[in-house]
Design goal:
- The complex is a heterodimer of chains A (136) and B (57).
- With 136 residues, chain A is mainly alpha-helical.
- Chain A is 61% helix and 0% strand.
- Chain A has 6 helices and no strands.
- The two termini of chain A are 21 Å apart.
- In chain B, helix 1 runs antiparallel to helix 2.
- The radius of gyration of chain B is 14 Å and the shape is elongated.
- The two termini of chain B are 23 Å apart.
- Chains A and B meet through helix 3 and helix 6 of A and helix 1 of B.
Chain lengths: 136, 57
């Protein structure tokens, strides 16, 4: 028997619906928190560091956290992507970061980093959901 | 930082790490998948860059 169990060797047990929801909410608020909750520590730490770094780089490049406005469909989709990281987005909003500087050289790159960080976190949340549901 | 290339490399690196960790379970597989993905990102960006070179904005 190997001293360290792999994901394939772990028993697949489906969590209660309430726990599933909490795992997803935790993963949305803090990137990687869902995996940390489920005992996938190394994965959770990597997601926490990398996705947070992407978000910070996006802000540093003077990218914009778009407002939710339905009149501009593409801006609305960008705004949804930005909100993929719950707590970092909330903190940036509170600190008045993410106003975006259109004339900055890194503006478009910043937007891309911010949106992709959020979208990747949605994938990470889905992965945590699958693990919690006993599918992985 | 205004180097488009370095920003692209940083983006490719971070996205490759997330996908590799998401898709694979062992560190060895993660390193291999991440490396391949990172290389593919860079090569594709360079090839597309050269292909777009003759077209003015």
């Amino acid at each position: 028997m190997s001293p360290k169990s792999t994901a394939a060797e772990r028993p697949r047990v489906a969590a209660e619906p309430g726990t599933l929801a909490l795992v997803c909410v935790a993963g949305w608020l803090i990137p990687g928190a869902g995996h940390l909750w489920l005992g996938r520590r190394s994965k959770g730490i990597v997601f926490l560091i990398v996705l947070s770094a992407m978000f910070v780089v996006g802000l540093w490049l003077e990218g914009r956290l778009f407002p939710l406005q339905l009149s501009e469909p593409l801006v609305f989709l960008g705004a949804l992507a930005d909100r993929g990281l719950g707590l970092p987005f909330g903190l940036a909003h509170l600190l008045d970061l993410g106003a975006g500087t259109v004339t900055a050289a890194g503006y478009e790159y910043g937007n891309t980093f911010l949106m992709v960080a959020g979208l990747l976190n949605f994938l990470v949340i889905l992965d945590a959901f699958d693990i919690a549901a006993g599918r992985k | 930082m205004t180097s488009h290339f370095l920003l692209m490399v940083l983006f490719a690196l971070l996205v490759s790490i997330v996908f590799a960790v998401l898709l694979r379970d062992t560190p060895r597989e993660q390193a291999r998948t991440g490396g391949v993905m990172f290389g593919a990102f860079i090569v594709t960006a360079l090839v597309l860059g050269w292909l777009m070179y003759p077209f003015p904005l």
